[in-house]
Design a protein that fits this description.
Blueprint (H helix, E strand, L loop, with lengths): L8 E5 L9 E5 L9 H10 L1 H10 L7 E5 L7 E5 L11 H18 L4 E4 L11 H18 L4 E6 L2 H12 L2
Helix pairs in contact: 3-4, 4-5
């Protein structure tokens, strides 16, 4: 029996670089270079080979996704997606953020992955309001999981506020 989408989504408080899943999602910059926040942590733990592979890819537009090896991470793969910078809400930010989650899961599906962990994309230095981002993330993931019965998702939140926002969005489904 296949579980419904809501039962294949979980929220944890922790460090995404420690999760043993098929893929972790990197909240990347458009150049796929090592950066700060989640991106910097993933690059530090994965090791220098990740930056080398990312340089060969050459970048990623906002809302799209690219796949690399996981290198020294417990996860086998990294799905890099570039979230939108918050510009006040009138520049298509909601749509671009939803695309990050959608395209990352499409990438997972295309590579026969079954478990994916997401950070709270764009809610750090990109300034997307966390209380607006969490419902977009959860609703988008749930919609994709309706069509992808083999996938499960973890929202790995770095702080309790983010975890609570994601749990609240999950309960509202």
């Amino acid at each position: 029996m296949k579980l419904p989408p809501r039962d294949r989504i979980s929220v944890v408080l922790g460090d995404i670089t420690r999760l043993d899943v098929d893929a972790v999602v990197n909240a990347a910059n458009a150049e796929l270079r090592p950066g700060g926040g989640v991106c910097g942590a993933i690059h530090r733990v994965a090791g220098p080979e990740l930056a080398e592979e990312c340089a060969l890819i050459g970048g990623c537009p906002t809302g799209e996704a690219r796949l690399t090896e996981g290198y020294d991470l417990p996860a086998s793969f990294i799905i890099h997606t570039v979230g939108p910078f918050w510009r006040g809400g009138g520049a298509g930010e909601d749509h671009l953020l939803a695309n990050c989650y959608r395209h990352a899961l499409e990438c997972a599906r295309d590579h026969d992955l079954e478990s994916v962990a997401f950070p709270a994309i764009s809610t750090g230095i990109y300034g997307f309001p966390p209380d607006r981002a969490a419902p977009i993330a959860v609703a988008t993931v749930a919609a994709v999981l309706e069509e992808e019965p083999e996938l499960s998702v973890i929202f790995c939140c770095f702080n309790e506020d983010s975890a609570m926002l994601h749990l609240k969005a999950l309960q509202a489904l």
